[in-house]
Design a protein that fits this description.
The chain has eleven helices and 16 strands. The protein is α/β, with parallel strands linked by helices and 347 residues long. The strands form four sheets. It has a seven-stranded mixed sheet with strand order 6-5-4-7-10-15-16. Strands 11-8-9-14 form a four-stranded mixed sheet, covered by helices on one side.
């Protein structure tokens, strides 16, 4: 299997996650518009992977600049930047990556168009490589919360497919297994587009990590019966107080975990943390097309035209979270202090 996303022959190549697990196919994006549409249509998804895709999209849009392009370079960069910026509103990593690419552009601009092209591509590749290393550090810190013999519930897909490699929540699982611990994963199927059923199960079976698929509404009963010992999920944006946006249904799992005395952890890189937002009430929540709920596999599963609500994410209040596992360690409540301390921005 190729990486989730890579740069090859001046194209951005992504595994098409819409087709998994039935087919392992790849899409070659040769324009910034193709990258933007891939992000919007869930060819690539997962906050860290979206961030890397955003960086590659900017680099792609600014490739091949010549000396004669100097006068139009700012306008071109803004068009590329704005197109990627409006793809998906919730994932903090997308905006973090774009901000980093803007800083790179501003630094390289005095050296001319060719230098800008080289610098942007180098920065995107650096983000790609850094993400894989960061995920392994998240796994290293997170394995401490996993005990031998645990059954671990996860929601959506926060594995290698949601990142450059290794994964965040599934990185914690992988690190625990590499340490020699015996674990079993319960994967919520994750309606409406089944990232848990299609992607998490596919990843874990490939790695020969025991996994059991359940519907989203089975989790509470299994918790009550003592069949789940730990919950670990990823994140798309984390506010300064620890409130966490993740795939819709995460909040329900957190409430059920609290009711049943089960530790609930979030695993995410600091690029997902948005210290500019005081609480989760400030996190923008993407509402997606109703046909994701009305249809499956191209077939209508309900009444044509039935009104639908389809928020892609919900926000889990910090009070339900035992810890946020980052590349710099595990933040514990109160998160307002611990996240800043681990980020290096204050005590």
């Amino acid at each position: 299997m190729l990486p989730t996303i890579t740069w090859k022959n001046n194209t951005v190549v992504m595994i098409d996650q819409r087709k998994l697990p039935a087919r392992e196919t790849y899409i070659a994006c040769r324009t910034v518009e193709a990258v933007a549409r891939a992000i919007e249509s869930l060819v690539i998804r997962g906050a860290p992977a979206i961030g890397v895709a955003a960086a590659y999209g900017v680099a792609l849009g600014m490739q091949g600049l010549r000396k004669s392009d100097a006068s139009r370079m700012d306008a071109l960069f803004e068009r590329v930047f704005r197109r990627i910026e409006r793809t998906r509103p919730t994932a903090r990593n997308l905006f973090w990556a774009l901000e980093r690419m803007r800083r790179t552009y501003d630094a390289a601009k005095p050296s001319g168009p060719a230098a800008v092209s080289r610098a942007l591509l180098a920065e995107a590749k650096a983000m790609d490589a850094e993400d894989a290393e960061i995920n392994r550090r998240i796994g290293f810190h997170g394995r401490a919360v996993v005990e031998d013999g645990m059954n671990i519930l996860t929601h959506c897909n926060a594995g290698a497919l949601a990142t450059s490699d290794y994964g965040t929540a599934l990185g914690v699982v992988r690190a625990a297994v590499e340490e020699g611990k015996s674990v079993r994963v319960f994967a919520d199927e994750t309606r409406p587009v089944l990232q848990g059923a299609r992607l998490t199960c596919w990843e874990l079976l490939r790695d020969r990590i025991p996994v059991v698929l359940i519907t989203d509404n089975m989790a509470g009963w299994l918790m009550k019966n003592g069949e789940i010992h730990l919950v670990v999920v990823g994140a798309d944006r984390i506010a300064a107080n620890g409130d966490t946006a993740n795939k819709i249904g995460t909040y329900s799992a957190a409430v059920l975990a609290r009711e049943n005395g089960i530790p609930f952890y979030v695993a995410a890189p600091f690029s997902t943390v948005d210290l500019s937002l005081r609480t989760g009430r400030d996190i923008p929540i993407e509402e997606r097309d109703g046909d994701e709920v009305r249809r499956w596999g191209g077939r209508l599963t309900t009444i044509a035209g039935i009104p639908v609500r389809n928020p892609a994410f919900d926000v889990t209040p910090a009070r339900y979270i035992a810890g946020i596992i980052t590349e710099n360690g595990i933040a514990r409540p109160p998160f307002g202090k611990s996240l800043r301390r681990l980020s290096g921005t204050g005590s």
